[in-house]
Amino acid sequence: MQVTETLAEGLKHEFKVSVPASDLDAKADAKLVDLKDKVKLNGFRPGKVPVSHLKKVYGRSVMAETIDQTIRDTNTQIFTDRGFRLATEPKITLPTEQKEVEELLAGKSDLTYTVAIEVVPTIQLADFKTFSVEKPVVDVTDAEVDEAIKRIAEQNRPYAAKAEGAKAETGDRVTISFKGTIGGTPFDGGTGEGIPVVIGAGQFIPGFEEQLVGIGAGETRTLKVSFPKNYASEKLAGQPAEFETTATLIEAPGETEINDEFAKTLGLESLDKLKEAARERLVAECAGATRQRVKRALLDRLDDSHKFEAPPSLIEEEFNLMWNSIKAEMESSGKTFADENTTEEAAKEEYKKIADRRVRLGLVLSEIGEKNKITVTDDEVGRAVIERARSMPGREKEVWDYYRNNANALAQLRAPIYEDKVVDFILELANVTEKKVSREDLFKDDEADEKSAA
What we know:
CATH superfamily of the largest domain: Trigger factor, C-terminal domain
Helix content: 40-55%
Catalytic activity: [protein]-peptidylproline (omega=180) = [protein]-peptidylproline (omega=0)
Keywords: Cell cycle, Cell division, Chaperone, Cytoplasm, Isomerase, Rotamase
Radius of gyration: 33 Å
Function: Involved in protein export. Acts as a chaperone by maintaining the newly synthesized protein in an open conformation. Functions as a peptidyl-prolyl cis-trans isomerase.
GO cellular component, one term: cytoplasm
Subcellular location: Cytoplasm
CATH architecture of the largest domain: Orthogonal Bundle
Number of helices: 13
Oligomer: single chain
CATH class of the largest domain: Mainly Alpha
Order of helices and strands: EEHHEHEEHEEEEEHHHHHHHEHH
CATH topology of the largest domain: Trigger factor, domain 2
């Protein structure tokens, strides 16, 4: 066997491989000898079929198997000897001319092929003990708990029918029936019967609820609105519509007294228990946000500490996934790059940088996990499946069956678990300091950080 490297350009390598016909023939004969005891042919006793006869019957198929196995074994040896970790599947180029193929399958010519690969670079990991990470911490106050309970009370406030002849006001609940048309033609989903609408709650498309102000029970109005450009249905997005709407009931909101009785309507023993539950939820929300902030800061630190050339094909693959998603989202919302104060070219450059970052961070996290023997157990994946199933009441079996029968879906669950375990490993070594912040500061939107997160 002869192996010649014909290209070594960055992370890209290409080899020309030549395997003598005699080597292939010997391997094929060995397979035929093994086959002799397994096949039954008319006119021959079991195990007594001459290899020469087997070669006439199965020669081509056995040689094809031999060539395939030889290529796989040879490539593995090439990559192992050089310490290569492949970024993508190798690209193999074999003879294509009919005459060459026939001679190769007949064992009359050497096997000559090329294999092109892209490798993962050697990654020199940083000393994580030198990392400093700031952990924002929020103390949930009694005032925040009271505010949360007040919101719960507003969501569960009672409504009572207004006096005959009363008109609807902002905050009132109006029960309506409607028929929607676009250009005089009804459309799917445009009708409703006995639908309760709280004026000012923003449940309906912009402009709909406001036009219900002043309506009375039994009154019919034609409401003129336009569907938002980013409406979920592409057929309706941006379209002007009319809704012939009849109010059947006008109700005014009442006040909810926050006490033990109110807590009991929510399934809790007392107001104190309601406060405990509200505090626990707020603490959990803050813990989740804190985790995201710390993880984001750590990924930024990893990014700064590990600058290397990432495999171009992996970057291209990651970019295409993001770009296709962005384009689809923009098309469905009717937005343009100009609306985002940018151009398509500038946006592409930005997302290529993000793709590069994500690929590098993925490789770094993988390297850390591999070197420190970090793994995800089947039990951990199983618990994640159970959590997914619990989040979809009534469809638990459907969710369970989906993951049980879909290896790719399970892999998608395993990946974030693995990433979190690697992050926790680094945080154990890093210098993590706590900083008291307000709830508002913890939850403030940061699009730049969201974009750059791996």
